[in-house]
């Protein structure tokens, strides 16, 4: 009887293999304000322009912060984003940001959903409020601490 109980416990432990799948397959690109203005004084909203679907608000009325995270798509070779800066007089200035990337499939386990990491290749942007954007870390993965982009705002915004 002890032998059967021992075999049952061993089989139970072997069957309970822990699979740590991530809760979300969406990876975020972390932007950090850099330069002279390291805290945003204007209100920032970020909208994703999508070809097949309706536009989507990714960041809504962000203010007084230093960092923010924008999700990266995994179906297109680039993301087209609108950065809407609204000042205290309710005047909105829009910068267009296009992020070119390469999607890299990432295998966790057969029990987990498919997921993608991203290689940031190039970034293009307009210069209404944004002075420059620099890619500081080109791989977007599960790392939530490191900043991927250094965002420089023109003085006075």
Report on the structure:
- With 157 residues, the protein is mainly β.
- Helices cover 9% and strands 48% of the residues.
- The protein has 1 helix and 10 strands.
- It has one helix at 2-15; strands at 27-34, 43-49, 56-62, 67-72, 78-86, 92-106, 115-125, 130-135, 139-140, 149-153.
- The strands form 2 sheets. The chain has a 6-stranded antiparallel beta sheet, with no helix packed on it.
- Strand 5 and strand 6 form a beta hairpin.
- The protein is elongated, with a radius of gyration of 21 Å.
- The model is unreliable at 12-16 (pLDDT under 50).
Which strand order do you get reading across the main beta sheet?
3-2-5-6-7-9
What is the structural class?
mainly beta
* Principal-axis shape: elongated
| Rg from alpha-carbon coordinates | 21 Å
Approximate helicity band? under 10%
Low-confidence stretches: 12-16
Q: What is the average per-residue confidence, as pLDDT, rounded to a whole number? A: 80
Contiguous helical run count: 1
Series of H and E elements: HEEEEEEEEEE
Gap from first CA to last CA: 77 Å
Question: Could you describe the largest sheet, including whether it forms a barrel?
Answer: 6 strands, antiparallel
The fraction of residues in strands falls at over 45%
